[in-house]
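Weekly puzzle thread! Below is a chain. First person to post its structure in token form gets bragging rights.
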Amino acid sequence: MFHFLPYPPLSPDVVFHYRPITGRYTLTFQEAQQACQSIGAVIATPQQLQVAYERGLHQCDAGWLSDQTVRYPIMKHSIKCSGNMGNQPGVRSYGLRPANERYDVYCSMPPPPGVVFHYRPITGRYTLTFQEAHQACQSIGAVIASPRHLQAAYERGLHQCSAGWLCDRTVRYPIVRPRSKCSGNLQNQPGVRSYGLRPCNERYDVYCYVERLHGEVFHATDDSGFSYKEAVQHCQKLNMTLASLGQLYAAWNQGLNMCHPGWLMNRSVRIPKAHCGGGQEEVHNIYAIPTQSGFPDERSRYDTYCFKGRKG
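Winning reply:
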């Protein structure tokens, strides 16, 4: 049986830093506007950047805004990011700039309706090249997330101390509760950490995104549980398939609340927890190794999650 819970209301528009694959500070003002439009966004206003800063956006990169000013938000002071405000936090400004100068850009979009999640394959931590990261998300029924997807997820509470690829070839991770081993480029400030644009052959985890569920996910159980092979067969008997990880996250995003670990198509075991007597609301992963890697032995016995597609 499903228990659907209201998802938190959508936040104001998401502001995010954008740098094209051509590199740092390569966009004129007109090109900056076109760059945002090319990814379905618009160039952000100074007011939007200020709100984003007040909600935790930190980025030591100057970018165009809609009024032809160039600014950047700094939560944590550093010598290289002091700008016109010295050691004070705030939004730095270069003022009104000639349109032919070149910077990055800050874009704005409505928050995405779907869900972002961290993914680590059975091969372990930091084993995916950029191309493999794309393929990994596709293999579980999702797509690789964008910077604005991750920023919106962070603002909704996503906390993950694991660096992962995004679709613009940057590597980032969201930290809500800072600690020493997860400080990154923001030290003790909350926010989305960034390694910047990385070579395609470097290896990290990945952040995936799934927008909506085209069908239903069902929880199935048995007194003695199922091995992975038995879970596949049980779903087939019900004229369903074993649910993908993307489908489970989409169902959880719509309110699925189950406190029972179950098999998924990629051989992982997950718990789509919303309210199970304490702890953070999230989809929990059952790891084979305490270092948070590996999937359970396929002979282990768990419940299962099946998926039935929507006709038409």
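Puzzle host: Confirmed. Bonus trivia for everyone else. The CA atoms of residues 73 and 91 lie 4 Å apart.
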